[in-house]
Each structure stands twice: as C-alpha cells, then as structure tokens.
C-alpha cells in the first residue's frame, strides 16, 4: 500500500514538473528574467545621465601659438583648462522612481509566474484525476460488457436449443450491445483525456507510468 501511494505521489510530482515546461509557463518565466534586466538598466541610468565636459586652452598645449616672444605675456591666458559636470535637475527623483517602477514590474512578473505555476499545476492534476476516473470507468465497463456478452452467448445457445423464446434472446442481445456501446464510449473518453493530458505534459502518459513503476 505504501509503495502504491509513493508511486502515485511520484507520478503527480513528475506530471507537474513536465507541465512546467509548457510554453505558457516559459513565457511567464522569461517575463521575470526580462523584468530583472529592466531593473539593471534603470539603475545604470545614473552613468548615462551625468555627463562631464572640459577643455584646455591652446596656450597650455603650445605656448608659442600665442605669438608672444616672452613668457611673461603668456601668463594672461587663464584659465589654462576647465572641467565641468552636467547633472540634470530631476536626476535625484527620476532615476530612483524609474528603479522603483522597474522593481514593481519585476514583482508583477514574479506574481504572474507564481499564479501561472498554480494554474498549470491545478490543470494538470485535475486532468490526471479525470484520467484516473476514465480509466477506472473503462475497466469497470469492460467487466460489465463481458458479463453481458456471456449472458448473450448463453441466451443464444438456449434459443438454439429451444429453451427460451425469441424475445428473450433479443433482450439478451440488446443488453450486450448497449453495454458494448457504453464500453466504446468509455474508451473514447479515456483516449481524449489522455490526449489532453499528454498535450500539457509533452509525453505519453503510458510511458510515464511505466517509468514510475517500482
């Protein structure tokens, strides 16, 4: 009993793991990664916003270019160089707000990812429950159909031997055909549910069950 329970749990965990490879979940996961990059970009805007500029006058580079014949005259050229930094007035509010917005976008993407995880997990486990029900229903219906077929074959012999009337034979035949139609319907339902489940997990459920057998 413990082994069967452990195997069921293992199958469920494996179903969820496979379902997480679904493209819908991959999109949510990549959205989180993209939002993380946006935070980095927002933080790096400090360097892109602040600009530095400077210049050196010609005398500093080439004193002779002034045309003066003595060094004293050259001292009138001031400043020899200048340097400045351009800082926008809104830098201390705009960039922090951009970072906050990027973080909120990340939190939203993370929340969407978690919600998508819960949604896909619920979906795959619900389909698996439908699969178990359809499988059990088919197994039960196979037995019922087999019993009806046995009754039908017995009625066929009894009618051939003149033990029962035609209406009794006809009743047994209709009982078997009705159960056979029900069996075919149950088989169809199981196959459809298997297709739905396999579309979510990306592998055949029969193969997965074989892999998880103890």
Q: Tell me, rounded to a whole number, the average pLDDT.
A: 76
Give the assembly state of these chains: single chain
Strand order of the largest sheet: 1-2
CATH architecture label of the largest domain: Up-down Bundle
Radius of gyration (Å): 40 Å
What's the end-to-end separation, in Å?
12 Å
Percent of residues in helical segments? over 70%
- What is the top-level CATH class of the largest domain? Mainly Alpha
**CATH topology assignment of the largest domain:** Outer membrane efflux proteins (OEP)
Continuous helix count: 8
Order of helices and strands: HHHEHHEHHH
Describe this structure in a few short sentences:
With 214 residues, the chain is mainly alpha-helical.
Layout: helices, strands, pairs:
Layout: H1 2-19, H2 23-43, H3 45-49, E1 51-56, H4 58-61, H5 71-74, E2 81-86, H6 91-160, H7 166-201, H8 205-211
Antiparallel strand pairs: 1-2
Helix pairs in contact: 1-6, 2-6, 6-7
Descriptive keywords:
rod-shaped; Outer membrane efflux proteins (OEP); 6% strand; 214 residues; mainly alpha
């Amino acid at each position: 009993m413990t082994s069967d329970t452990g195997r069921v749990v293992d199958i469920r965990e494996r179903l969820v793991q496979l379902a997480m490879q679904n493209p819908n979940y991959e999109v949510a996961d990549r959205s989180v990664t993209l939002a993380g990059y946006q935070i980095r970009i927002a933080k790096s805007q400090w360097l892109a916003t602040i600009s530095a500029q400077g210049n050196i006058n010609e005398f500093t580079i080439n004193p002779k270019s002034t045309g003066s014949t003595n060094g004293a005259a050259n001292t009138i050229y001031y400043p020899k160089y200048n340097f400045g930094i351009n800082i926008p007035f809104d830098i201390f509010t705009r960039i922090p707000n951009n970072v906050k917005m990027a973080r909120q976008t990340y939190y939203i993407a993370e929340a969407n990812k978690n919600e998508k995880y819960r949604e896909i997990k619920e979906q795959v486990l619900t389909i698996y429950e439908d699969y178990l029900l359809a499988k059990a229903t088919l197994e039960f219906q196979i037995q019922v159909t087999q019993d009806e077929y046995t009754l039908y074959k017995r009625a066929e012999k009894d009618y051939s031997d003149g033990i029962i009337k035609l209406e009794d034979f006809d009743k047994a035949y209709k009982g078997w055909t009705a159960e056979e139609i029900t069996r075919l319907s149950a088989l169809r339902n199981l196959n459809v549910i298997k297709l739905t489940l396999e579309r979510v997990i990306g592998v055949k459920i029969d193969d997965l069950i074989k892999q998880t057998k103890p």
